Every structure is written in C-alpha cells, then in structure tokens.
Amino acid sequence: MRNGDFAVNNRFLRACRREPADRVPVWFMRQAGRYDPEYRQIRETYTLLDICREPELCARVTRMPVDKLGVDAAILFSDIMVPVGAMGMSFSLQENVGPVMEHPLRAEEDVASLRVFEPEEALPYVLATIRHLAKALPVPLIGFAGGPFTLASYMIEGGPSRDYVHTKTLMLARPDLWDRLMSKLSQAMARYLRAQIQAGASAVQIFDSWVGSLSVHAFRVRVKPHVQRMMADLADLRVPVIYFGVHTGELLADFADTGATVVGVDWRTPLDRARQRVGTSVALQGNLDPVSLFAPPEVLRREVETVLELGTQSPGYIFNLGHGVKPSTDLAQLQRVVEWVHAFDPANSPYPPSKEERA
Amino acid sequence: MRNGDFAVNNRFLRACRREPADRVPVWFMRQAGRYDPEYRQIRETYTLLDICREPELCARVTRMPVDKLGVDAAILFSDIMVPVGAMGMSFSLQENVGPVMEHPLRAEEDVASLRVFEPEEALPYVLATIRHLAKALPVPLIGFAGGPFTLASYMIEGGPSRDYVHTKTLMLARPDLWDRLMSKLSQAMARYLRAQIQAGASAVQIFDSWVGSLSVHAFRVRVKPHVQRMMADLADLRVPVIYFGVHTGELLADFADTGATVVGVDWRTPLDRARQRVGTSVALQGNLDPVSLFAPPEVLRREVETVLELGTQSPGYIFNLGHGVKPSTDLAQLQRVVEWVHAFDPANSPYPPSKEERA
C-alpha cells in the first residue's frame, strides 16, 4: 500500500478514479520551479540535475509547493531527460534553451546502442527520493516520465525544435527504425514508471508534450500503439496514469483510447469539448492558460471559474494549468488559484458529490 | 473586372466560391522562397524588403512558382510586417529569427501614435507590383495582410514569441487598450487589402498565424469582432477572403463565422473534421504537413492522397500545406505534389463536378 491511499488528502486520487471528492483537486505542472524565490536560491548552488541526484534536497524541492501553495498532489522534481542519460545518450540542460544532446540520434547504430536500463541500478537516486517522500508527504506523489515521441524528438533533433523536421522525416522515411526506437523508449519508460510506483508514487504522468505536432493519422499509426503498450505494461499496478501534451485537441479521443486513466488538456480545448471527445471512461486534467497568471487577480479569478465550470460538468476532474508554470509567475497568484479552486462548490455543478462524501 | 475572372485558369477562384472545377486547385504558402535556388540567388543581392520595394523584381519573384511548379494561384511576394512599418513602427527582418521591433509597443501612447495609413501614399510599390502582375499572370493573384492578433503579437513582444506573455497580459489587464489596438490594426489592414484588391488582386488571405495560441473564449471576445469587421469592410468588393492560422482546430467554427470565404486549416485537424466544424458555407484550404515534403516520394504521395480524399468530400476545397514551405524543401517534391493534385480525379469524390464543368 502506498502513501496516497492513506493520505489525509486523497481528493486527487479520487478524482483520477472519477469518484466524488470533497473539493476539486488542484496541482500545477512545474509547481516546483523558478517562480519560487527559495527554489531560485537553491539553483544558485545546484544545477537542476544536481538537485535530481540528491534525494534529500530533491525531496525538499518536491515538497515546497505542497507547503507553500496547498496543492493536492506533489510531483517528483526531476526532468524528462534524466532517463535519457541512463539510456546512454549524453546531454546538457541549457538555461533558457532546454536539453541539448551531445550527439543527436540519426542512424541505425544509435538506436541499437540505446539501453533499456534497470532503474534501480541506473537511477537509484530517483527511487530513493520517492521512498523518502512517500513516507513524509501529506498528499499523493506523482511520478513521471517523458512520452516516447517527445523523448525521440529531443534525441533526434538534438534539442528543442519548432517543426521536428528530422524526427518526422525519420518516422516517414524509416518506419521500421522509428518503431524500434519507439519500442525501446516506451519499454524503458514503462519500466522506469513501474519502479517509481513500486518506490511509492501514487500516480504517474507521461509528458508527451510535443506529440501534438503530429497529424492524427501519424499519431495513430506511429505513436499510439507504443503508448498503449506502456499503459498495458503498467495496468497491473492499478495506479492512475495521466497522459499529457500540448496542441493535442485533435488527439484527445485517441489519448482516451490508450488506456490512460486521466487525459491532460491544454488551454486551447474547452473542457466540455474535451469531455465530448474522451467519453466518460477517463478523468480530465487542466486547463488554465499559464499566461492567465499574469492578469490582475479579479481577471484571473474569472478565468479560473470558467475552467472550473466546464471541468466539473462531469465526474473525474483535476484542476491544473494547460502547460507548466512560467518562471516569471508570481507565487501569490498560484496561492490565490488554489484558494479559489478549493472554495469552488462542486455541489453547484451538474454532478455533485454524494452527501456522505462531503461530510 | 480583374484578371482572375478572365484567366485561363480559374479553378482556384471557383473552389473559393464552392463551385465545381475541372481539377482540385493547389498553391503553397511561401511558394516563393528559399527552397528555390533562383530565389536564394536573388537574395544574395537583395534583402526581402528590397524585393518588396522593387515592383518589377517583386513581380518576377511572385511569378516564379507559377512557372516552376504549375500552381493555380500566385501570392504576392511580401511580408506581413511591411504595413507595420507604414503604421509608424520600425523593425528589421532577421534571418532565422523573424521580425524584430526597434521599440516594442507597450504603452497607451504607442497605440495612440499608430497611423492608419493611406496605402497609395505609404506603400505605392506594393500596389504597383500588383498592377504589374494582374496584367501578366496566367492565374489569379492572392493579396495578403497579417491578422490583427498576429501583428499585435510582433509589435508587443518585440519579435517572435513562444508564449505571448506580454501580448496576452495586455489583452487581459487592459482590454480597453487592447481593443483600441485591434481596431487600428484591423482598420488599417482592411484598407490595405481593399487597395490590393482594387489594384488587381483576385482574392486575399489574412495570415493570423499565431491566433491559435488563444483559448476559444479569448478569441471570441478579444479578436473575432475585429476580424468580423475586416470581413464586413471588404464584403462589397466580392472577392474571396481566406482566414488562416496554425493551432486553430478549436477556432474553426468561429473562423467560419467571421464572414471569411475560405478557412485555412493546419495539418493537425483532418479536413473531414474541419468541415464538420465550419459547416457548408465556406471553402476549406490545406492541410498537408510541410514536413511531409521531406519524405520519400512514394510516402509523400500517400500523404497527399489522404489529404485530397478528406478535402474533396464536400464542395469548395483548395489544396495547400498546413503552414508555409520550409526553406530546405526540395523543389522537385513541390512539383510532384502539384502533379498529383492535378491528376486526382474529383469525380471519384462524393461531390463530383458536373459534366459541363469538366468538358
């Protein structure tokens, strides 16, 4: 049994399972990050990867937003590139740029030499951080990994990209090689997520942030089967799995069909439309535009309430942003959002929780 | 009467009006550009803005893809920033970056000092180019302008942006100032497009490329009314107006509701879905992923045919990419696409042209 099931605050896990909860749960993608002065101070001494490698410090950073913002879930502080290193590809994380690979993956041999690593051997510090947190946190802990398309895009392009020319060209010109790469990535990430869950994560999120650059057809044929296999690989653990990317409005029905428990939605798709596309067998997570946090509080409040009203029209809803918190965000604005989400009365939504649940 | 109506090749204009045509018409966004060695050679001597300011050279560049690719429409060679200069804001076009403003627009006075210019006075060379082309081209000429959100985003951010923080913050925090800015931009661009049409453009496209960064609600309240006013301002001229942006899947129904004649679609939204959203009162244009042009010809052909099959399921369809041609594209691939589009038999689609039309 892991922490989340016994936690005082289990509304996040209840919402993932589309069960009624006392309040709408809320957490933020990148809720531990540069917007927080304490985090910025830590980063004066430690790089992001330094923090990931020091379980006590990493646990402290992971917990900071739980204490400061009052969010209903913690997410492991890490980076989707951490396991890419464990697969045998060197990279650096460059400030204001992102991951930059030492040698981009382009050839047959590059795929062949990727290691489907043993998490306990290759990334013991990640699992140590999770064990530490699972005992101490007052809320469930979310583990995570990058999605196969998104990881492949960094590996192949050599860094962030606007158009994914090399990635899509490999996919179109060498579908056999592409499938081998996707298989290795999805197998490695499923194994990594399994280890995180076994160490104490109560849920996991797959960040396939850039998969929305694909057409529906390309996603269905070249990515979805691999995501489905990841979901199937994790199914026996019976913890919620969230699948998320930006620009994915057209992919939402297929996202729901991967076996995901929760589908993350960016701010472009209103949540009532997202619900029509995903059906009623998954929960939804999202989708305030992160830039709304720069608006005056009274304007921000209206934006938050609009999202809440659309999100709570059907059971299974977790408030979040439509993408990560921006570094220049004011911490006080995030605090306000949590307050407003928790003050929102789901009883006024068409699907109120039962009386017992609210007592 | 303008050229396009008498042109030998009028299938582009017929498709805009949802009338049957002998073949599916095709043109490409950025069809005059760096993929063409002759263009690259011209750019060794002239900057992009130099070309725009020299009517004969500009007409030659505009015509190049018509002769080389066999496309069914020409689009004026220019840049959406050209009229921004005429409004009184200085900028430069930086290679591999895009437009960079000398002073970003941020304050009340900056909006107040923008000029709604007289096109014949401020940009005579653009209109001279169009007059020159309208007499000589064997296909209709498409004029264009930037959409109000996209122009505002360059003005406010000071250049290209990933997240439009300053633009959206101004919109949320100062809706009054935002509306004044939108009014000036849409008025100036409507006047500019009117002048282009009067000089001989047979159709115009409004490139609101980045408007898909907005939520549906923000688009409806803060941008759509201004686009509607632009469309209304141009309605008496009775030429097709195309409205286009990327990441706009969620906005397509609203796009159709602006009064546009044709709605441009990026590659993320399958054209049959796009049709469901826009209804039957507009034509559709798009939507091959520009990166597909890097695939081997036999793979590219399948991609082209998939787009054609979805696009021709209802009347009023123009083949195009989902965004501009990338500079590293092979010219021969574009030639192949035009050939395949023209070889496609719309008679096999559920809405074949009438016999008379095909004779």
TrEMBL record, chains A, B:
Q: Which cellular compartments is it found in?
A: Cytoplasm
EC number(s) in its UniProt entry?
Answer: 4.1.1.37
Residues annotated as binding substrate: 30-34, 79, 154, 209, 323
* Class of enzymatic activity (EC top level): lyase
InterPro entries noted in UniProt: UROD/MetE-like_sf, Uroporphyrinogen_deCO2ase_HemE, Uroporphyrinogen_deCOase
Q: Which CDD domains match?
A: URO-D
Keyword check for Lyase: yes
One Pfam family for this entry, by name? Answer: URO-D
All copies of the Uroporphyrinogen decarboxylase (URO-D) domain together span: 25-34, 142-158
Q: Where does this protein chiefly localize?
A: cytoplasm
Q: Which residues cross the membrane?
A: none
Site residues, Transition state stabilizer = 79
Catalysed conversion reaction: uroporphyrinogen III + 4 H(+) = coproporphyrinogen III + 4 CO2
Q: What keywords appear on the UniProt entry?
A: Cytoplasm, Decarboxylase, Lyase, Porphyrin biosynthesis
Q: Name one GO molecular function term.
A: uroporphyrinogen decarboxylase activity
- Which NCBIfam families has this protein been placed in? hemE
How would you summarize the oligomeric state and partners of this protein?
Homodimer.
The record's annotation in PANTHER family points to: METHYLTETRAHYDROFOLATE:HOMOCYSTEINE METHYLTRANSFERASE RELATED, UROPORPHYRINOGEN DECARBOXYLASE
**Full protein name:** Uroporphyrinogen decarboxylase
Annotated organism of origin: Alicyclobacillus mali (ex Roth et al. 2021)
